[in-house]
Amino acid sequence: GQQVMQIPQYQHVQEGEDFTTYCNSSTTLSNIQWYKQRPGGHPVFLIQLVKSGEVKKQKRLTFQFGEAKKNSSLHITATQTTDVGTYFCAGGSSNTGKLIFGQGTTLQVKP
Amino acid sequence: EAGVAQSPRYKIIEKRQSVAFWCNPISGHATLYWYQQILGQGPKLLIQFQNNGVVDDSQLPKDRFSAERLKGVDSTLKIQPAKLEDSAVYLCASSPDKDQPQHFGDGTRLSIL
Fold it and tell me: What are the start-end ranges of the E strands in chain A?
């Protein structure tokens, strides 16, 4: 069945350093969504990418969707302690709208 | 707007007992999802409703799990009988329609003794 893999599983950075997490799907996706989950919290929607090669920015966050619509990345420039949490990508099925979540990348930021 | 409401927040039961969770989605959202999130993993979709119809329940262990959304609004998820491996957070989410961003509730943390 469809699988979505994310790397790395964990990342520790010094405040001010950059951070990138990568997401790969075994099948072509209709869309990809990114969510952030703080410790003890629930996933919160960040962004949705739909078009092949699409790039979107939200302040220090840059999201990319691959040309083949099978991979994606999230890049954070100059991390802050407020960026701490687990970042999940979720690939959308074109048939049902079902989302397959990756296992997440947990980001720790040292002040 | 009010968010997705779930209850209870926490539940502790013994194995082989039954348990039920309730979810009230955001008003007007046609699509409702139930996820299981085991510690350290991403949410796993159990069942997806479009209004009161089931769109996907391929990963729902149907011998012990059941879910309904009778009037196309709120929903219940039941486990009977519970096993130790069911210990997890059960998240409900809703979206205006399929393929759209999902809004999650706070979840129910289930512990099986």
Answer: 4-7, 10-14, 19-25, 31-37, 44-49, 55-58, 61-65, 71-76, 85-92, 99-101, 105-110
**For residue B51, what are the contacts with CB-CB under 8 A and spacing of at least 6?**
B30, B69, B72
Distance from CA of A15 to the nearest CA of B (A): 24
Beta bridge partners of A31: A92
Pairing status of strand B19-24 against strand B103-104? unpaired
The set of residues, in sequence order, having a beta carbon less than 8 Å from that of B26 and lying 6+ positions away, is: B1, B2, B3, B4, B94, B103
Chain B, residues 84-103, CB within 8 A of chain A, namely 91, 93, 97-103
Report the distance separating Cα A9 and Cα A22, nearest Å.
10
Q: Per-residue confidence of chain A (111 residues) as pLDDT tens digits?
A: 778 999 999 999 999 999 999 999 999 999 999 999 999 999 999 999 999 999 999 999 999 999 999 999 999 999 999 999 999 999 997 766 789 999 999 999 999
A105 in reach of chain B (CB within 8 A): no
